[in-house]
Write a structure and sequence with these properties.
The complex is a heterodimer. Chain A is an alpha+beta fold. Chain A has four helices and two strands; from the N terminus they run H-H-H-E-E-H. A two-stranded antiparallel ribbon of chain A has the order 1-2. The radius of gyration of chain A is 19 Å and the shape is flat. By secondary structure, chain B is of the alpha/beta class. In chain B, a hairpin with a 6-residue loop joins strand 3 and strand 4. The longest helix of chain B is centred in the middle third of the chain and has 17 residues. The chains are: A alpha+beta, B alpha/beta. The complex binds adenosine-5'-diphosphate and magnesium ion. The site of adenosine-5'-diphosphate has 18 residues of chain B, from helix 1, strand 7 and helix 11.
C-alpha cells in the first residue's frame, strides 16, 4: 500500500477529481445543449474580435456558462501570451 | 372541469438504472398513504417495470397506449392498489413502441387524470427521446433522480437543460419547479472521499434538494416482493422517502441541510422526530 493510500489522500482525491471533471464537462454541455443555442456562435465571434487586438490561440479563450441558482453566469477567461511567447510566435 | 388542484410530477434522470421507478413507486405510495389520491403513470413504453415494482403485474389488462388509441377507457385500464386506498397505476404497453405516445394523446389522458387525482406521478424512461420528452412535457414539477456518480450527474444536468427549454412550462415562459433527489448515497464512501457528497452534487446541478436516499438492501428486498418501499417494513430508505415526500408537500422537515442529512445517516434518528 502506498503512503498516500495509507494516509487516505489518494482516496480523498477520487471524489475531488470527479467534481472537477464534472464542472468542466457540464459547463461545455450547457453551451452545446439546446438551452443556450447562441453560445457557440458567440464564442466564435468573441474569438474573432479578441484576436483583432491580441495575438492569441483559439484554445486560450474559454467561455463557460455556470448555473448559479436561478441565474446563470457567463465566464470569459482569456489567457494572454507572455511577451516571450508572442515574440516566438511572430518569428515563426 | 378540474375538480381539484392536481399536480403532475415527472420523475426523470436522463440515465437509466438510477432509481426512477423505485422512487416513483415510493413517492406515489407515500402520497396515497397520506390521503392524496395518486396515480403513478409508466411512460417506459416497451419496457414496463412499474407494475412489477408496485406488485400489480398480474392485473394488467389494458395499458397507456390502449387508452391513447381508444381501445380502452381509463377506468378499465387504471389498476387500483389492493393494499391502500388512493393509489392507482397506469401501466405502460409492453408491445408497442414509444411513437405511440402522441402529444395530443398524452395530453388528453393527463387532462382526464387531472379530474380524478391530486397527484399524477410520471415515471420517465431513460434517455432524452420521445418517451422521456412526453413524460416531462406536461409536468408542473420535476424530481431529478441522481446517483452521486459522474455519468449520472452529467445526465441529470442535461435533463435539467431539457426541462428548462423543452417542457410546456418552459415554452410558455413559466417556471417548472425542480427538485433534486439523490439516491444510492453511501455516507461511508463520501466520508472516505470516494464518492461525490451531497454538496458536490448540489453545487453542480444547482437545484433545491428534495431528499437523499441511502443505498439500502431493503430496496431490492421490497422490489422482490412487489412492495413500494414506503409500504414495506421500516428501513432507512423508507424513512428517507417519507422525508422527501414531506418536503414535496412543502412541510418544513428541518432536515434538508447537509448537517441534517449527516445526522440522519449518523443514526441520530431525526426521522422519528415529528416535524415542528
Ligand atoms: N436506494 C437504493 N439502494 C439500493 N438499490 C437501489 C436503490 N435505489 C434503486 N436501487 C436499485 O437500482 C436498480 C435500478 O432502479 P430503478 O428504480 O429500476 O431505476 P430506473 O427506473 O431509473 O431505471 C434496481 O435494481 C433497484 O433495486
Ligand atoms: Mg425505470
Amino acid at each position: 500500500m502506498s503512503l498516500l493510500k495509507f494516509l487516505g489522500l489518494s482516496n480523498r482525491k477520487s471524489a475531488q477529481i470527479a467534481r472537477e471533471r464534472l464542472q468542466i464537462v457540464v459547463s461545455h454541455q450547457r453551451m452545446e445543449g439546446g438551452d443556450v443555442e447562441f453560445l457557440p456562435k458567440m464564442r466564435n465571434e468573441l474569438i474573432t474580435v479578441i484576436s483583432k487586438y491580441i495575438k492569441i490561440d483559439k484554445d486560450q479563450i474559454n467561455v463557460q456558462l455556470l448555473r448559479n441558482g436561478s441565474c446563470s453566469v457567463l465566464e470569459l477567461n482569456i489567457t494572454l501570451p507572455t511577451p516571450q511567447e508572442q515574440v516566438a510566435k511572430e518569428t515563426t | 372541469m378540474t375538480k381539484l388542484e392536481s399536480k403532475i410530477i415527472v420523475v426523470t434522470s436522463g440515465k437509466g438504472g438510477v432509481g426512477k421507478t423505485t422512487s416513483s413507486a415510493a413517492i406515489g405510495a407515500e402520497l396515497a398513504l397520506r390521503g392524496h389520491k395518486t396515480v403513478v403513470v409508466d411512460f417506459d413504453i416497451g419496457l414496463r417495470n412499474l407494475d412489477l415494482i408496485m406488485g400489480c403485474e398480474r392485473r394488467v389488462i389494458y395499458d397507456f397506449v390502449n387508452v391513447i388509441q381508444g381501445d380502452a377507457n381509463l377506468s378499465q385500464t387504471l389498476i387500483k392498489d389492493k393494499r391502500i386506498e388512493n393509489l392507482y397505476v397506469l401501466p405502460a404497453s409492453q408491445t408497442r413502441d414509444k411513437d405511440a405516445l402522441t402529444t395530443e394523446g398524452v395530453e388528453q389522458v393527463l387532462n382526464d387524470l387531472r379530474k380524478e387525482f391530486a397527484f399524477i406521478i410520471c415515471d420517465s424512461p431513460a434517455g432524452i427521446e420521445r418517451g422521456a420528452l412526453m413524460a416531462l412535457y406536461f409536468a408542473d414539477e420535476a424530481v431529478i433522480v441522481t446517483n452521486p456518480e459522474v455519468s449520472s450527474v452529467r445526465d441529470s444536468d442535461r435533463i435539467i437543460g431539457v426541462l428548462n427549454s423543452r417542457s410546456r412550462k418552459a415554452e410558455q415562459n413559466g417556471e417548472l419547479k425542480k427538485h433534486l433527489l439523490i439516491t444510492r448515497y453511501m455516507l461511508n464512501r463520501v466520508q472516505r472521499g470516494e464518492m461525490l457528497s451531497i454538496e458536490d452534487v448540489q453545487d453542480i446541478l444547482a437545484i433545491p434538494l428534495l431528499g437523499v436516499i441511502p443505498e439500502s438492501p431493503s430496496v431490492l428486498n421490497a422490489s422482490n416482493n412487489g412492495i413500494p418501499i414506503t409500504l414495506d417494513a421500516n428501513s432507512d430508505a423508507k424513512r428517507a422517502y417519507q422525508h422527501a415526500v414531506s418536503e414535496l408537500l412543502g412541510e418544513k422537515t428541518g432536515a434538508l441541510n447537509n448537517k441534517g442529512w449527516t445526522k440522519i445517516f449518523g443514526g441520530l434518528r431525526i426521522f422519528n422526530r415529528s416535524p415542528a
